Amino acid sequence: MILRSKVNLRGNAGRKRGNVAINSQSAESPTIYGNSGSRTPLVWWYLNEIGQPYEVGDAGNPHPFGQVPALKEGELEIFESGAILMYLADKYGGLDTAAKRADANKWITWANATLDPAIFSPNIQASAPRVLDKLDGLLASIDTYLVEDEFSVADVAVGSYLLYIPVFFPRFSVAKWKNVTKYMKLLSSRGTFTETFGPQHAARVEQFLG
């Protein structure tokens, strides 16, 4: 297994990396099974952002359907990117109230149930505008990030799908959605985005957004 994170924060409960609070640390790092051609980078990005060490599983994927991503931590096994993100945020992400957790979880659920299908559809030109219209309106009332203007797992979930557009659908323009464009620029400027998705992906995003 390969240790992905270079930052070890064990014994530093309550610290913050950037403006992401770290609630608690585990004596055993989670193992993430997956690859860059799946939703696994969403999980990697969040873990890199909060500075939580993790390992990349090279065998024995615990996903009952043989898909990725999947997480194993001790005896605990979780599959589906949304469920993994919710668990990690609850354990490590500093969402210290039920209201904050619900606020983040609604965005994770929306990203997987609505945004992802709208973008990765047979015809993004037909499916995405309605969803982006609504998102753009919601972002108009948000200064920076989705949950209390602090970067959180919600931004990872929503932002990852938006930032796949320049790579998979470079001819689809988001220019008319000013707030979405601003939000994408904000998220792609974070160092952990480039660290996780790679410089080539980041360069395509920068070129796409102008």
UniProtKB/TrEMBL annotation:
One Pfam family this sequence matches: GST_C
Residue intervals of the GST N-terminal domain: 1-96
InterPro entries per UniProt: Glutathione-S-Trfase_C-like (IPR010987), Glutathione-S-Trfase_C_sf (IPR036282), Glutathione_S-Trfase (IPR040079), Glutathione_S-Trfase_N (IPR004045), GST_C (IPR004046), Thioredoxin-like_sf (IPR036249)
GST C-terminal domain mapped to chain residues: 77-205
PROSITE patterns documented for this protein: GST_CTER, GST_NTER
Family statement drawn from the similarity comment of this UniProt entry: Belongs to the GST superfamily.
Record's protein name: Glutathione S-transferase
